[in-house]
Amino acid sequence: MWLQPDMDGQLASRGRRDMKALAGRLAARFPGLLAPQRRLAFVSSSKPRCLDSAHAFREGLREALLQHHRGQGPTAEGNATMTETLEVNDRLMRFFDHCEKFVRDIEDNNTAMHEVDAFKEGPEMKIIVEKVANTLCLPVSDLNADLIQTAFFTCSFGLAIKNVNSPWCSLFSTEDAKVLEYLNDLKQYWKRAFGYDINSRSSCNLFQDIFKHLDQAVMESKSSKPISSPVILQFGHAETLQPLLALMGYFKDAEPLKAHNYHRQVDRKYRSGRIVPYASNLLFLLYHCDQTSSPEEEYKVQILLNERLLQFPHSGETVSLYTDLKNHYQDLLQNCNFVEVCAMPKNTTRVD
């Protein structure tokens, strides 16, 4: 087994390469990132894999910067520098750990994942358990859904990290993989997304922080001042992104994901493996537009998820006036108070 306990929580070498490549692609797509003496603000979770991701991304930017200025002479290469700051902020990037209501009602509540538990015992998973037991010549009683999922993850980690097709992969068909994908989506849906309101609303601090920086950039631009934080790069987790995207209304299905409706959810929007794959990324881009007919049209926004444009929920378009976007999210910006949302009422008993 190449997977070892000391690898837990660490950034894999493939992940390091992915982060460097991502930085290179973004630098090529947005050459303003490589402006001489560009100021970059890095914010990271305290987890080693996030700090290492930030470091790898910075390396990728530096390499892109040097390549961009190479061949332009010694003077140009001397401009190939960046001014950087790094802040470790778990309250922002691991907000879920600091939300008492989420920790008590979801994280530490054994009954919160009842739909996941029900699917593990459901007919779709039983078929896989019986098939794998038969393949391995084991009694069905020796296997369960958790062991099957571990075998599937072992297969998928080998493919993703090592690019090897391990013997574990031979246990599963494409249809099995779809069932196991749904099992994981169920868990993410109920623990990190639309299953419970607290999942998404625990991210309101991060959501408001993003708009605080956008507001500041607009204000400085209108005052003809240099933008104090033109590039802010935040490194968190899949568990950071999923609640934020749910808060913004992305990938919400008309029917909730449940244990009994697997076949009706074949074409579901909520597929965690596509929303937050390895090296997943969410970009907010603010544009200052000249020659507009009114001040309201001067600033526009685009949002990219995994380097692809997202349509805005309020318009279906991929470009939005900044004022329109703020109006759409006005309630969240003004009334989603993290302290109030996450506070536990005193002298109350949890109802499961």
UniProtKB/TrEMBL annotation:
InterPro entries: His_Pase_clade-2 (IPR000560), His_PPase_superfam (IPR029033)
Pfam family, one: His_Phos_2
Keywords: Cell membrane, Glycoprotein, Hydrolase, Membrane, Signal
Record field: transmembrane: none
Signal sequence extent: none
Keyword Disulfide bond (UniProt): no
Gene3D superfamilies for this protein: Phosphoglycerate mutase-like
Localization (cell): Cell membrane
GO cellular component, one term: plasma membrane
CDD domains per the UniProt record, alphabetical: HP_HAP_like
Catalytic activity: 1D-myo-inositol 1,2,3,6-tetrakisphosphate + H2O = 1D-myo-inositol 1,2,3-trisphosphate + phosphate; 1D-myo-inositol 1,2,3-trisphosphate + H2O = 1D-myo-inositol 2,3-bisphosphate + phosphate; 1D-myo-inositol 1,2,3,5,6-pentakisphosphate + H2O = 1D-myo-inositol 1,2,3,6-tetrakisphosphate + phosphate; 1D-myo-inositol 1,2,6-trisphosphate + H2O = 1D-myo-inositol 1,2-bisphosphate + phosphate
MF-aspect GO terms: acid phosphatase activity; bisphosphoglycerate 3-phosphatase activity; inositol phosphate phosphatase activity
Protein name according to UniProt: Multiple inositol polyphosphate phosphatase 1
Lineage, top ranks: Eukaryota, Metazoa, Chordata, Craniata, Vertebrata
